[in-house]
Amino acid sequence: MLIDQVNDDTLMLERNGLLKDNTESELETVIKESTSDLPLGKALNLLLNIHGHVFDKAIGTIRKSTRAELTVQAIESPTIRALISIENYLTSSNNFTKSFDHIYHSLEEKFIKRNKANSNSESSMRIIGYFMLYSKHQKLVQQYISQELCETSKRNQLAVVVLLQFLFTNYISMQDMYSDLSALFISSLTQVSQKYADSPTLLACSSCDLALQFSRYIALHLNSTNDTIASITELQDDNNNTKFHQISKAWEYADTLLNIMEKWYKSMGELELASFKELHLFLSYAINSVQDINQRVESIAAWDLIVTYLSPKSIVSEKPLTLKKQKALLSGQTIPLLSTIKVSLFVILQKGRLVGLYGPNRASTIFSDEEDEIKVQSFPIKGLGRHLIPLLVEKLPLICTTDDINSNELVQLIMDNVEYNKETMHWLIPLLIRKPEISVCNLLLNVLEQNDKSQPSYDLLSDLIVQNSSDFIELLENNLLSVLKSSNQACELLIQCMEYTHLPSLIQKLMSMTIVDNQREKMTYIALISKALLHPSWASYSILVYIDLIRDLKLHKGFETPVKPDFTVLPKLAPNTITDYKRSHALEKKYKDEELKEICVTLMGPIQLWSTKATINLCHELIWSVILPCVDIMKSYSATGELNEFALLKKITPMLILQTMPEESFDIVKLPKSYVDFLSERIKMIDIEPQSIKLCNTQDKHTPLCIELMDVLLSRSLEDNNGDIKSPVEFYIALLSRIFCK
Question: Looking at the record's lineage, which domain of life comes first (predicted)?
Answer without folding.
Answer: Eukaryota
